[in-house]
Specification:
The protein is an all-alpha fold and 107 residues long. It has 6 helices and no strands.
């Protein structure tokens, strides 16, 4: 799954507004995607809560129907190629750092 830290998302907006060489859509995601299990474990650690298991596919299918297979459960492999080509630098080195920064300002 793709993810992005709040600070990086804001930085991408600023980068896009100030870049003369950027036009069209861009993928505002971290350079590396992760599995649902890794995201669940990292979120549990950031919240200081036990992580038993990631969201079961069956539950996601019940909640979201057909959209679940096409988006939430699909391996979309979203990569921020254009941002990388233009030399954008992400501040969040890891999901754990991004979650810690976001949760420390919102909780």
């Amino acid at each position: 799954m793709s993810w992005i830290g709040l600070a990086d998302l804001v930085a991408i907006y600023r980068f896009a507004m100030n870049s003369d060489s950027l036009s069209g859509p861009i993928n505002a995601v971290a350079p590396r995607s992760i599995s649902n299990l890794r995201f669940t474990v990292a979120l549990g650690q950031a919240l200081g809560r036990p992580t038993l298991f990631p969201a079961p596919a069956l539950v996601i299918k019940i909640l979201f129907g057909e959209m679940a297979d096409e988006t939430l459960l699909a391996d979309l492999a979203v990569v921020p190629w254009r941002l990388q080509q233009l030399g954008f630098t992400w501040e969040s080195g890891s999901l754990a750092a991004a979650l810690a920064a976001t949760l420390s300002t919102t909780v």
